[in-house]
Amino acid sequence: xxxxxxxxxxxxxxxxxxxxxxxxxxxxxxxxxxxxxxxxxxxxxxxxxxxxxxxxxxxxxxxxxxxxxxxxxxxxxxxxxxxxxxxxxxxxxxxxxxxxxxxxxxxxxxxxxxxxxxxxxxxxxxxxxxxxxxxxxxxxxxxxxxxxxxxxxxxxxxxxxxxxxxxxxxxxxxxxxxxxxxxxxxxxxxx
Length: 191
Fold this sequence. Notes:
single chain; four-stranded mixed β-sheet; three-stranded antiparallel β-sheet; 13 strands
């Protein structure tokens, strides 16, 4: 007795007819039988084909559509499998995620936030198998303008001095200084 070993090409499924022949090697008499060999499909998981490059933007940047073309693949796509893409920000105080109408993730940068975080992008197939790619996103700090509190029009009597209290804030906690100018030489200002 001998053994027959059957092997199919990687990721192939379908049917084939196998014919086995026995030979007596004396009179060269032979006998053959055929059978159908069926290779059933199995769901293969998606995989990261080309990892995403790290991303660097400046603070307060506009939303960024995450480029996922060519990042994931799945051998079962040719058989109708579909990949759904989902992204998750590790730090939602820096980056929040939304989806485009076609399911592609947008990175939405939180106003006045800077730092680094990972965004995990997951491709899930129709049967729940998935692959993850992680991209590091760096949001560079930028100097924000300070905000001067409102100054209302004001008046005083001739030959009187006026003192106004100035107030301002700065999201970057910078050391603020004030200056003032007059559009006429008849009014002197000093901060």
